[in-house]
Amino acid sequence: MFKSDIEIAQEAEMLEIEKVAEAAGIQKDELELYGKYKAKLSDEYIKRISANKDGKLILVTAINPTPAGEGKTTTTVGLGQAFAKLGKSAVIALREPSLGPCFGVKGGAAGGGYAQVVPMEDLNLHFTGDFHAITSANNLLAALLDNHIQQGNVLNIDTRQIIWKRCVDMNDRVLRNIVVGLGNKTDGFVREDHFVITVASEIMAILCLATDMNDLKAKLSNIIVAYDVNGKPVTAKDLNAVGAMAALLKDAIKPNLIQTLEHTPALVHGGPFANIAHGCNSIIATKTALKMADYCITEAGFGADLGAEKFLDIKCRKGNLSPDAVVLVATIRALKYNGKVAKTDLNKENLDALKVGIANLEKHITNLQQFGIPVVVTLNSFITDTEAETNFVKEFCENLGASFALSKVWEFGGDGGVELAKKVLEALEKPADFKMIYDDNMSLTDKMNSIAKKIYGADGVDILPSAAKKIAKIEELGFANLPVCVAKTQYSLSDDPTKLGKPSDFRITVRDAYVCAGAGFVVMLTGDVMTMPGLPKTPAAFNIDVDNNGKITGLF
Fold first, then answer.
1. Active site residue 106
2. Which among 56, 206, 260, 419 is least surrounded, fewest beta carbons within 10 Å?
3. How far from the centroid of its chain's Cα atoms is residue 429's Cα?
4. What residues does 523 pair with on adjacent strands?
């Protein structure tokens, strides 16, 4: 009988989190408990293990997402379980899910089948409150900004140049562009305002890129919220907002510990989207995992053109990290979808379509090889895959110099990932010569061109005049040395979501740009990508319910 992911998760026999921690060498008093099955790691524990030797860092990424599914998080979780099956010490490091996709279209982010992290419902809903803390800190800064203007505007803020946006962790399209301050004089200054989804907030990025509380406060201080009448930046420090924001984030900065279905420890912390933010879990969680075990297995959001590129060019740059191997996830179904097969026909063998659609996988393999890291391609196995299709993909990957393994973790958990785990262990024996694809001293435009040409396969970049003006201003202010975080559709290597496979003869259009001076990167918005998503016609929320016993159904 087929069981849904949530049914499998609800039937699981979880260990109390103290027992999972004990097996990982964490003492009871080094945990901050959030019920029986989740906890935060204390500062004392992180300091205690700081002198430990770092383990190997394994990044899991994927081809461009399709409606057919790829299974990146499932593979990450299953790989961690498989390492345990082989007697290896491994910790998984994941992002926290956003409520927007949970109630929208994508669903949760706990993995799937028998390769999940639990408690699944807690993780996909409020978890330990990190996102609420980030939302509160973001909106406190917005409130202090508007209050400063209301109380006399000593900083001479130009109300036409306010760039700080409010946020909410929900897909709420009507909040993209709003007017605030309507009513009486005491209700504030009337102006246009905007919302972003919490995972796209700079506070989320700062939390994920900070190394400790002092670094967090330093980054918060540098947030630019507006410009004054002379064009000078106004920062969170100028508004005296940093201390209160940090107080709201004092617990959120600590990594969360939960477990897989097979009781492998998992650190789940931070959750920026990879299409509109940098798409990686926190540096603190990743570095802690590297100290906890011989292997840290982490993931980066969406396709390798987004999450992996940002992991390698932004997170590794900021955190002084150097990955030892990368796992690239694909499915036969997704590759055939890239070959223009209708979703209803994906279960049928179609080698001709596979030969067309595999160009997307090819591009991601060669992209990752540019970074000097050994690549292992894995097919997330489906029962409808045929031997001919699988053999074709295997031979194709090996001819490109990538290792290959089937993954059956959705169906068999850790046992289904042993073949993949062995291939990853072999890849870790190969020398890694990690290098980023652009230098700090390049101009922002040249960095954007490097990403567009080397990663997307574009002919170049077209920067709209308004965006060019903003880029020039950003460089004038001294931020030219920052990395670039591209906001782009996740569905295509191009900025057009309809161009599947490996598009050619295209250019990337940059329509806007802004600096996240606190997080330490410059965002380039391309195509029609939105920093506040909307709900679909039939949201996933329609299927979610809870009974009188508190049992949730329909979450995923």
1. yes
2. 419
3. 27
4. 485, 514
382 belongs to the catalytic site: yes
What is d(CA 65, CA 209) in angstroms, rounded to the nearest whole number? Answer: 25
- Give per-residue pLDDT as tens, 113-142: 899 999 988 998 999 999 999 999 999 999
Find tokens 């020398």 and name the residue: 431
Q: Which is catalytic among the residues 103, 131, 302, 556?
A: 302
d(CA 98, CA 126): 9
The pLDDT tens digits for 172-192 are 999 999 999 999 999 999 999
CB contact set of 369 (below 8 Å; sequence gap of 6+): 375, 400, 401, 402
Would you say 103 and 539 are in contact if contact means Cβ atoms under 8 Å apart? yes
Residue among 410, 412, 506, 556 flagged as catalytic: 410
Measured CA to CA, the distance from residue 424 to residue 35 in angstroms comes to 35
Tell me whether residue 421 is one of the annotated catalytic residues.
no
* Single-letter amino acid, residue 184: N
Nearest-5° Cα angle at 215, 210 to 219: 80
Neighbouring-strand partners of residue 233: 227
Q: Tell me which residue of 267, 221, 224 sits closest to 246, measured CA to CA.
A: 221
CB atoms within 10 A of CB 270: 31
**Given 38, 40, 56, 72, the catalytic residue:** 72
Read off the DSSP letter of residue 315: I
DSSP type of residue 255: P
What is d(CA 129, CA 387) in angstroms, rounded to the nearest whole number? Answer: 46
Which residue is catalytic, options 48, 85, 88, 106?
A: 106
The DSSP secondary-structure symbol of 343 reads G
Distance between CA atoms of 164 and 141, rounded to whole angstroms? 8
What is the predicted pLDDT for the residue at 554? Answer: 82
Q: Per the residue annotation, which of 38, 40, 56, 95 is the catalytic one? A: 95
User: Which residue among 39, 109, 274, 300 is the active-site one?
Assistant: 274
Helices H, strands E: what count in the chain? 20, 25
Is pTM, for the whole model, over 0.85? yes
Q: CA-based Rg of the chain, rounded to a whole angstrom?
A: 23
Query: pLDDT tens, 312-322?
Result: 999 999 999 99
Annotation marks residue 348 as catalytic: no
Catalytic residue among 382, 479, 506, 521: 382
Residue 392 annotated to the active site: no
Point out the catalytic residue in the list 74, 198, 288, 378.
74
* 164 classed as catalytic: no
